[in-house]
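[step 3/7] inverse_fold.run input=structure_tokens len=375
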């Protein structure tokens, strides 16, 4: 006997990992797997589980035989889930993979990583949507767990990111970032006019911990950050239609998110890389919302006005150094020859801040004339 119906029936008794082994064979491998104590992302099987299943099957056989001896016509079916699998029923499982066990060993050779990827994406988007409704049954930590698994899977299997782009998940993820950003408004306000940066700043002393909404939106940002390393996904992020959010304004806002600044800047850097054929569209988005001026504000070391940007961001020394380097790299990428490079260079060439930074080595995190200017 073989086929999908047999596999479905076996899955009522055995974990998915064992069903795969039974299906693929050979018989010796099946017997060996049944006798082993196994804990992997694909299979959890213990002697206790085997004994429990054996006892349950013996009871089922005995009860069925007892009914048959009475001469009755029995409409019998296998149980939905045997007791042998009850101990793992609360463990998040996606595409036959135990998510927490995968995070412990992300390099484990999965039988079907694409199936796991697609399942993670679907359940991640569903879990985010579930947090929009106040309910005691909603697990607010599930989106964080699934996003961590997504990022780990894409790091180990970077080629899978292209698969995400081909399947059309990128616009859904961008929309998720946009929605989560609106739930906890942290607008840039009038920053590009140099009048106010309150929306971009956060006060860790006053906000020692992040809200569940902030953690969810950061999880969205981490997924986009990982996908941006794929040219296919980067180009998909540039594609917009009427009513859909644009990715560059979202990332500009994310620069002001607690814990999201460096991720947002590095995502921007990846998106406007030379290999992205849709780079001009992304640069146009940046010019429209004043991203060039925002990044120059990150680099401004002088006192007063926008100069307090880094201090208001409450970056530590390491974050400020990395943030400045990334801002410079994004500005250089924006100024690379393309449809809008003349406009970008006009803005940069008129900036004293850029004059101080543009030719500096990235391992020096202070502008060349910072001391004299401050004096």
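[step 3/7] decode complete -> sequence:
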């Amino acid at each position: 006997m073989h086929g999908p119906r047999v596999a479905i029936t076996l899955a009522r008794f055995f974990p998915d990992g064992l069903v795969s082994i039974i299906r693929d064979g050979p018989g010796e491998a099946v017997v060996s797997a049944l006798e082993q104590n196994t804990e992997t992302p694909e299979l959890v099987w213990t002697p206790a589980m085997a004994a429990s299943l054996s006892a349950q099957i013996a009871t089922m056989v005995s009860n069925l035989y007892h009914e048959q001896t009475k001469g009755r016509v029995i409409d019998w079916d296998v149980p939905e889930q045997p007791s042998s699998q009850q101990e793992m029923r609360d463990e998040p499982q996606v595409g036959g993979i135990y998510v927490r066990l995968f995070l412990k060993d992300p390099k484990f050779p999965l039988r079907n990583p694409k199936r796991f990827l697609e399942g993670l994406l679907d359940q991640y988007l569903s879990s985010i949507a579930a947090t929009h409704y106040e309910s005691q049954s909603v697990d607010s930590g599930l989106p964080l767990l699934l996003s961590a698994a997504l990022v780990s899977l894409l790091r180990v299997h970077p080629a899978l990111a292209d698969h995400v782009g081909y399947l059309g998940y990128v616009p859904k993820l961008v929309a998720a970032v946009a929605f989560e950003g609106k739930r906890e408004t942290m607008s840039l306000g009038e920053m590009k006019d140099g009048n106010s940066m309150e929306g971009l700043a956060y006060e860790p002393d006053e906000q020692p911990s992040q809200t569940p909404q902030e953690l969810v939106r950061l999880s969205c940002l981490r997924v986009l950050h990982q996908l941006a390393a794929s040219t296919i996904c980067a180009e998909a992020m540039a594609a917009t239609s009427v009513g859909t959010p644009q990715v560059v304004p979202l990332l500009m806002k994310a620069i002001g998110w607690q814990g999201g600044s460096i991720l947002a800047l590095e995502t921007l850097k990846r998106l406007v890389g030379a290999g992205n054929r849709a780079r001009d569209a992304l640069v146009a988005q940046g010019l429209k919302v004043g991203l060039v001026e925002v990044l120059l504000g990150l680099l401004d070391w002088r006192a007063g006005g926008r100069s307090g940007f880094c201090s208001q961001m409450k970056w530590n020394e390491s974050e400020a150094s990395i943030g400045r380097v990334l801002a410079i790299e994004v500005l250089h990428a924006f100024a690379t020859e393309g449809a809008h490079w003349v406009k970008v260079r006009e803005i940069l060439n008129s900036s004293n801040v850029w004059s101080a930074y543009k030719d500096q080595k990235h391992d020096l995190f202070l502008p060349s004339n910072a001391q004299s200017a401050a004096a």
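[step 4/7] annotate
Confidence is low (pLDDT under 50) at residues 185-208, 303-308, 366-375.
The first strand starts at residue 38 and ends at 39.
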